[in-house]
Amino acid sequence: MMETDTPIDVNNTQTDNVESYIYMGQRYTTRDKNQDSEFQRRTPTGRTAFARHSDIFKGNIGTCLKRQVYNRCALPAMTCGAET
């Protein structure tokens, strides 16, 4: 990607120049080609999703329900964008 100082207008609105942005759960950056920053960002996201449901995981409910909550809530937060 080339660096440019030429302003870009979309519908008569000038866009901002940014070094990184998040699109569909994955961080894209123009400077850092190393993905370490993406992994560092995603790890706390997964922990937060897991902690948000900690009362369910610690509760006296069946393992099947706990697994469903983990698979539908915590796991996607940790793996979103990992396939790319």
Descriptive account of the structure:
By secondary structure, the protein is of the alpha+beta class. It has one domain. The chain contains 3 helices and 4 strands. The protein has helices spanning 36-52, 54-58, 63-79; strands at 9-10, 13-14, 20-23, 26-29. The longest helix is centred in the middle third of the chain and has 17 residues, at 36-52.
Please give a handful of descriptors for the protein shown:
84 residues; alpha+beta; two-stranded antiparallel sheet; two-stranded antiparallel ribbon; 14% strand; elongated
Write the layout of secondary structure elements.
Elements: E1 9-10, E2 13-14, E3 20-23, E4 26-29, H1 36-52, H2 54-58, H3 63-79
Antiparallel strand pairs: 1-2, 3-4
Helix pairs in contact: 1-3
Radius of gyration, CA atoms, in whole angstroms: 19 Å
Uncertain runs with pLDDT below 50, 5 residues or more?
A: none
Instruction: Please outline the major beta sheet.
Output: 2 strands, antiparallel
Mean pLDDT: 77
Q: What percentage of amino acids are in beta strands?
A: 5-15%
Helix/strand/pairing category? alpha+beta
Structure, briefly:
With 84 residues, this protein is of the alpha+beta class. The protein has 3 helices and 4 strands; from the N terminus they run ββββααα.
